Amino acid sequence: MGRKLAITSILFVIASLFLKISGLARDMIIAFYFGDSYQAMAYFAAFTLPNMFILFFATGMKNAFVPSYIHAAAENKGHHHFSQIIRGTMILGFVVSALGVLLSPVLLPFMYPELSAQAIDLSVSLSVIFFIAVFLVSLNSVYEAYLDAENKFSLSVVSQILVIGSTILSGILFSDQIGAFSLAYGYLAGSLLSYVIKRFWFIPKGSHKIIGKIDWDELKPFSIVFIPVAITVMVGQVNLTIDNIFAGQFNEAAINYINYAKNIVHFPQAIIGVTIGTIIFPMLAKTIATNNQEGFKKGIENGLMLTLMILLPAIAGMMWLMEDLIHIVYERGAFTADATLATAKVGYLYLGSVLFFSLQNILNKAFYSKKKGHVILRISLFSVALNVALNFLFIELFDSYLGIPLASSVMALVYFFLNLVVFWKTEGRLNVGFLLKDSTKIVAATIVMLLALWASHFVIGAWNVYIRFAVTILIGAASYGLAILMMRTSISKLLLAKLKK
User: Fold this and answer.
1) Which residue has the higher pLDDT, 465 or 60?
2) C-alpha angle 351/352/356, rounded to 5°?
3) Which residues, 6+ apart, have CB-to-CB distance to 387 below 8 Å?
4) Which contacts qualify for 496-501: CB closer than 8 Å, 24 or more apart?
5) φ and ψ at 401, to 5 degrees?
6) 328: Cα separation from own chain's centroid
7) 296 near 287, Cβ under 8 Å?
8) What SS3 class is residue 420?
9) Which of 219, 298, 367, 445 has the fewest CB atoms within 10 Å, counting from its CB?
10) Residue 193 to residues 94, 127, 149, 167, 199, Cα–Cα distance (Å)
11) Residues 6+ positions from 271 with CB-CB distance below 8 Å
């Protein structure tokens, strides 16, 4: 069982890495063909609203369905539970999709009153297409959650790669003919293809029935868990929408810089934070099912420290390489050197949100595994209000859209610590000594890495940007790896023991 889980986890990490690289490739296509033009802005503005509900279904469903299905399967009710969830989701997905199509022409002009009529018209049309895709996403979300519950993480990720791959291919083939519409139609086609493949190849026959009577007694308790969890998941996208609305006060390019920067700096979070959270989630759910409270807390502690150990040096390295990174990833085609500098400035200020949202993801899994998503819902809603207030404050102080990413980082810090306090009050204190000791050693190892990068810069600073980038990564990885081994952190010893096993 342990060997099977290890192989599954490795496959999931590989698939997740490929998924995030595919997402980065999509952004590179957008940057190449549209740069910081109004078409890129229209795409980003159009996608923010539908993406709220894409996350509502996709991530929210996984966090709610996995523990509920595991519990139902243990009572030999897995087929019935699966069938009822897919039927209920089909109804909800259709309603959300229809409302989105009808309301996009009203909401987008209201959200971005400063933008040109040309940009708004295009944004509305793209949003309608994305909202049509939301219905398919809602069905896909249940199937992906089922695959996660069965520890088939990589299959779930592969279906998401199909959607991004279709978007990329459509952008390459048709962007010259139909502009940003190529991205929206590609996403819609990919969503349909992903559904068909999961429905007829990935999901076992007889595991569920789509057509049939709805059992409201089965759906009601699930909805009580799902709705708060899904709304909590939406908060991140709501905050990005708020960022875009504030950026729209400046110019169309500001929205592009905000989105390009956030997408690239959150790459480590998507790879490391989400991957660790996804892998430990079924494990946490099983400790709850077996009433293993000690194992539950230990899982949270290890998840937090593992995330910090891998993510902190990645963030520090990204800060050191920010301009080179933006240059290598985006600067070609319609994306200019000036756009690189503007995006890098935004990226520096978003890095704080990467760290604290990744750590928060571990706490979220703890609450979700106990079906207590409602506990953190209030804090999540408070974070939205806090983000708005901080945006007003920092934009006024900076007189620039650079106040927007800073507001997000400060909000993420407050959000994480508030949730940590709530966790300790509701679930009991974690091992503070273990957390402080390992955290201190991880920070020290990261400082050693930065000193090594600083020293090497005197030698490699004038080298070709691609060679300098690669050598810097090797030096950073080697110096941090040696430092963390010498520090002998508990989490590194545990990780090495697991890898050896």
Assistant:
1) 465
2) 120
3) 239, 242, 243, 407, 408, 411
4) 498/6, 501/2, 501/6
5) -70, -5
6) 22
7) yes
8) helix
9) 298
10) 18, 20, 22, 12, 10
11) 16, 17, 20
Size of the chain in residues: 501
- Report H helices in 179-215: 181-197
Separation between Cα atoms, residue 125 and residue 133, nearest integer Å: 13
Dihedral angle, C-alpha 330, 334, 340, 346, nearest 10 °? -90
Encode pLDDT of 190-243 as tens digits.
999 999 998 888 888 888 888 888 988 888 888 888 888 788 777 777 888 899
- Residue 310's alpha-carbon distances to 20, 190, 488, in angstroms, are 17, 32, 15
- Banded model confidence at residue 273, pLDDT cuts 50, 70, 90: low
Categorise residue 215: left if φ over 0, alpha if ψ from -120 to 50, beta otherwise. beta
Which residue in the block uniquely carries the two structure tokens 């945006």?
391
Q: With the CA atoms of 247, 249, 254 and 256 taken in that order, what torsion angle do they form, in degrees rounded to the nearest 10? A: 70
Residues 6+ apart with CB under 8 A from 5: 151
Encoded tokens for 440: 């201190």
Contact (CB, 8 A) for 145 and 65:
yes
Distances (CA, A) of 215 to 6, 137, 218, 221, 395: 37, 23, 5, 11, 50
* Structure tokens, 317: 């390295």
